[in-house]
Amino acid sequence: MTGGELKRAKRTVRTEVRTVRDAMPSAERRRRSAAIAERALSLAEVRDAGVVLAFWSFGSEVDTAPLLRALHEGGKTVALPRIVEGDLEPRVYSPGDPLEATSFGALEPADGVGLDPGEIDVIVTPAVAFDRSGRRVGYGGGFYDRFLPRTRGDALRLGIAFDLQVVSGDLPGGGFDVRVDAIATETAVVRCRRDA
């Protein structure tokens, strides 16, 4: 598959999955998001983690507010991503810390203490779609594909998604795409193989 074909294939996946995700009623999204948070929090790696990088959801994504709240209440150090000169930088976040809007609509820490990627035990990873092998189609910026290789090899790369975002078959991907280790949905945890 050429680079242009790969971009077109990913764009098609984004459009199809986002259309279905966007159609979910907000009350249903809240209910399913709470179930996803519970499922993610039940994982041994998350229970044992000291530092978790999560993200502030936007649009029709899984609502991360319940997860962020529970992580804080559980005594975890929580970080959120901030995009600086095209790269993802983890910044420590506590409820009430100032946030600012990004160009694409998400919120990120306005400032905050930076973390070394090697300090992070769990990386909660967003995507528009996942497949069962851990491949993901994100929003096209490549931020996580560049960031994840800078984290520890034993850190859990955890995707969170609604069931409808986990597709059957293989997603289009290139050699630069970094997979997740597990995906938590409202009904299951899918364990994936780690890239060699």
- Percent strand equals 15-25%
CATH topology: Rossmann fold
Low-confidence stretches: none
Distance between the termini: 22 Å
Overall body shape: globular
Record field, number of beta strands: 12
Largest sheet, described in full? 7 strands, mixed
Highest-level CATH class: Alpha Beta
Give the radius of gyration. Answer: 16 Å
Strand order, largest beta sheet: 3-2-1-6-9-11-12
| Number of helices, counting only DSSP H or I runs of 4 residues or more | 5
Structural class: alpha/beta
Order of helices and strands: HHHEHEEEEEEEHEEEE
Model description:
- The protein is of the alpha/beta class.
- The protein has a single domain, classed as NagB/RpiA/CoA transferase-like (Rossmann fold).
- It is built from five helices and twelve strands.
- The strands form three sheets. Strands 3-2-1-6-9-11-12 form a seven-stranded mixed sheet. The chain has a three-stranded mixed sheet with strand order 8-7-10, with helices on one face. A two-stranded antiparallel sheet has the order 4-5.
- Helix 4 links the parallel strand 1 (51-53) and strand 2.
- The longest helix is centred in the N-terminal third of the chain and has 20 residues, at 3-22.
